[in-house]
Each structure stands twice: as C-alpha cells, then as structure tokens.
TrEMBL record:
<dbReference type="GO" id="GO:0004315">
    <property type="term" value="F:3-oxoacyl-[acyl-carrier-protein] synthase activity"/>
</dbReference>
<dbReference type="GO" id="GO:0005829">
    <property type="term" value="C:cytosol"/>
</dbReference>
<dbReference type="InterPro" id="IPR000794">
    <property type="entry name" value="Beta-ketoacyl_synthase"/>
</dbReference>
<comment type="pathway">
    <text>Lipid metabolism; fatty acid biosynthesis.</text>
</comment>
<dbReference type="InterPro" id="IPR016039">
    <property type="entry name" value="Thiolase-like"/>
</dbReference>
<dbReference type="InterPro" id="IPR014031">
    <property type="entry name" value="Ketoacyl_synth_C"/>
</dbReference>
<dbReference type="Pfam" id="PF02801">
    <property type="entry name" value="Ketoacyl-synt_C"/>
</dbReference>
<feature type="domain" description="Ketosynthase family 3 (KS3)">
    <location>
        <begin position="7"/>
        <end position="419"/>
    </location>
</feature>
<comment type="similarity">
    <text>Belongs to the thiolase-like superfamily. Beta-ketoacyl-ACP synthases family.</text>
</comment>
<dbReference type="InterPro" id="IPR020841">
    <property type="entry name" value="PKS_Beta-ketoAc_synthase_dom"/>
</dbReference>
<dbReference type="Pfam" id="PF00109">
    <property type="entry name" value="ketoacyl-synt"/>
</dbReference>
<keyword id="KW-0808">Transferase</keyword>
<dbReference type="GO" id="GO:0006633">
    <property type="term" value="P:fatty acid biosynthetic process"/>
</dbReference>
<dbReference type="InterPro" id="IPR014030">
    <property type="entry name" value="Ketoacyl_synth_N"/>
</dbReference>
<protein>
    <submittedName>
        <fullName>Beta-ketoacyl-ACP synthase</fullName>
    </submittedName>
</protein>
Amino acid sequence: MKDHLGRPLVAVTGIGMVTPLGWGAALSWARLLAGDSGIRRIGRFPLDHLKTTIAGTVDLPEEDDGGSTAFSSPQRVERMAAFAIAEAIAEARIGSEGDFPGALMLGMPPVEHEWPQRFALARAAHAGRYPDMVRAATGHRDLYETFLFGGIGERLAARFGTKGAPISTTTACATGATAIQTAVEAIQRGETLAAIAVGADGSVQPEALIRFSLLSALSTRNEDPARAARPFEKSRDGFVMAEGAAALVLEDYEAARARGARIIGLVAGCGERADSFHRTRSNPDGAAIIGAIRNAIADAGVAPVEVGYVNGHGTGTPENDKMEALGMRAVFGEAPPPISSIKSMIGHTLSAAGAIEAAASLLSIRDQVLPPTINHVEPDPSIMLDVVPNTARQVNGLRHVLSNSFGFGGQNVCLLLSAPPEA
C-alpha cells in the first residue's frame, strides 16, 4: 500500500513514554485522561531568589524521593530515552535484544556544562576564569563524553543495536516532532524499513530555569503548582518547564503487516515551516504556523475538514496560544476541530514535547478519546476554540489528528497522525 504520492505508508507499531505523571505509556495515558497534574515544587536544587519554583520533574529510579543534583541533563535524557525506546520496541516485538533492524533518530536539547561541573572545575583550577577551567578539564574524558552532543545517540545506538549512524537533532520545542519527521522521510525514501524516533529532555536545572525566567516565559503561579499551567485560558501567565521522553517504532506499513505486527496508527503527514522573525517570538502574521499546519495536512492527502482533533502546542504563554488560535482559524475556518493541550497536566517537556504529543495523538485515535485541557477556568474571548475543558471526551469516528509543535526561532513542525487502513 502506498500513500497519495506513491510513498510507503509509515506505520507506528510501538510507543514508549516517560512523563511527570509516571514511567510507561499506559500509566501516563491513564493519568492524562483522568486530568491529573504532574507539576510540583522543584526539589533537586535550591530555589532561593528564583521567580519560578515549580516544574514537571521526573525522578530517575536511582534517585531518592525529591530528586538529586547527581544527574546532569544529558544523563537524564539518556536514561529516559532508553526506557522509552525499550518500551516501544517491546510493544512492537521487532528484532532481538540489542539488534534493532533500523535507524535511530534522536531529538534532544542542546548540551552544555552545567553549574555543578563548572564549579568543580573552578575549584580544581583554584580560579574561576574560563581558560583556567579549560586546563582543569584536560584529561577528564568522562566529562567530555557526558556532554558531547552526539554521545547520547551513539550510546543508545550501541545499546539497542540500531543500524547506521544515529542522527541527533535539536529544533527547540519542535525537536521531538523533527525526530519523527526525519524517521518518516527515511522510510519513505526506502533507506530503511524501520526506525526508532525518540524525543527526550531533562533540562530542569538552575541555569535553564533562570534563562526562561529572564524571558518572562514561565508561570510564576508557585503557590498552586497543579493549577499553574493554563493553556488557552484567560489568566494564563506562562509555561511550566518539564521533563520526559517518548519513542515511536516506525515501520514501512507493508513490511510491518508481513511480519504480523499490530499497527497502532500511521504518521500520514509531516509539515514544517520556519520564519526568521525573532529568536523567541512568532511572526505576528502567523505565516509559518499556518504554513506548517497546511503542509502537514496536504502531505497526508486529507482535507482540513477530515481532521477530527488537534493536539495543540498550547504552552500557556499569552502570545503562543494566541498565535496557535490564529493558525487554527486560518486553516479550519469558522468550525475548527476540538483542540486540547496536555501541557496543562505535564508542563512543557521542550525537546520531548513533539514526540510525547504525537504518542498521545495516536492513543487518542486508538481509544477514541480526547485528553482534556485542565485548569480552564475562564475562556479567553480572543481564543474562541473548543479546548476540551477540564474533562476527557469520548468520541466516535476519529481517524485523523493533527499534532502541533511550534519552537523558538520560528521552528515549526506539525504531524498528521491517522488510523490504520484496516481500522
């Protein structure tokens, strides 16, 4: 079977997930549908003088309750990505342990030395100047390998036995969706019959929190963490940083059917569009957002009216939600489909968001249910959309879901997820 452009259909046969709501796709999905919040007070580093003290953190199994400063962001990324990949492969029942018959596409955050490592180097150098710290780092191979951007992908590829060079990408908040798009296009070109696409982020650490805070991007509703993230709501005041990972096993549809795989759904279309308007803001004309949505729908060969639900980017910042609403109206007209944001429950998982939300979109199709946008108290009169407020909604006949990922710097990727042909 081919798509409308004569390309192989791309099937999803396995899903793995880690979110602030728990380890494992089934647990995270159940709690999302229940409207639970994974946002809480940060416990892994001091919060003195910080404007924002809440996040959607994920404690690793090796940690004590409340987290620890022992693990850096890349270490957290690697552990969560490995869990999600293992879960996805187990569900797909593909290959043997350590011998995955396809490629690895990893979406992850930019990596740099964090404060604990910098302080340790400064102490070793007996000085805080950068040249002294560089000299103190000489010979510390472990430090280099931990923070080497491509190192995580290499180690994951070795662990799971993927084929070819792993590809690591970062496109801001669209990163997880970019990883999926990269894998889809490799299968469509006939370069591989299978691929793992994973997005992961573990960036809840002091410097990242301060940087986003200086941009006035974060919610400061610290007194009530569970109600802090309010996408599309009138009183929204910013997003909540979070961590997590999701992995999809993607396969050529005919190859998956031939081996008897259970098809969860299809990645039917991918659309991207960028602008160079500002390092953090979207162009007020919305051209890139509108273009990415239209490109995904056109790539899938469906009409806008066939899209039954949108898993929104929905960060909860005043500008982003307004721009997403603009894009919805421009593409879908006066009768847009329902849109909800799971970031209201798990926060903004940054580089993982596109992958987690694509996974949730597929599960929406499988179970015929829309996850809610919680904390929706008062509608914003400038965002007149059906945001599935506060409670999950059972539906019938849902076959096509759009998943939006809009990143800083105008990096936008949208995915169109569809029910399998036999459904």
